[in-house]
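Appendix B, Record 12. Input sequence as logged:
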Amino acid sequence: MIYNKFSYKKFEEEFLQKIFEFLEKNDVSKFENGRYDIDKDNLFLNIATYNTTTPENRVWEAHKEYIDVHMMIKGKEKMCTAFIENANITEYHEDSDYVEISDIKGDISQIVLNEGEYLVCYPQDVHKTACIVEKEEEVKKAIFKVRV
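Logged structural output:
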C-alpha cells in the first residue's frame, strides 16, 4: 500500500510514472464517469462519482489481477484497509477480478483520502471504499487499474 499526495512525483514504481504522465496531459477532473483505456487492459482508468455512506453499507473487496490506484478528485472519503491473510474470502469473480470478502479477522486501518491524495492498493491489500468521514458527501474519484 502507498498513501501520498498528487504533488509528490518521485516514484520507484513504473506504473505510477505512467499514471502521472497521463495526468500531466489530461485533466481527469473534467472526465465523465466511465472507463478510459490507457494501455488496453494493462492500464485503464475508471472515473466514478458517488455519495459516501456508513461502513456498514459498504463491502470489503480485493483483486488478484490488478493494482488499484485511488485518486481523489473532489471530496473526501474514509477507506478501511486490511491484509488479505486476515480476510474471510467467500468467492472470486474472475470476470471482474473481484474477491468477495465476508469479514476481516484482525487489525483494520483507516485512511481519509482527501482531494489531491492517492492510495495504491496491491492485491494483498483488502479495502472498503466510500465511507463517510464527517457526513455524507458526493465525491469524484479516479481509479486507475494496473495489471499485475
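The two ends are 14 Å apart (CA to CA).
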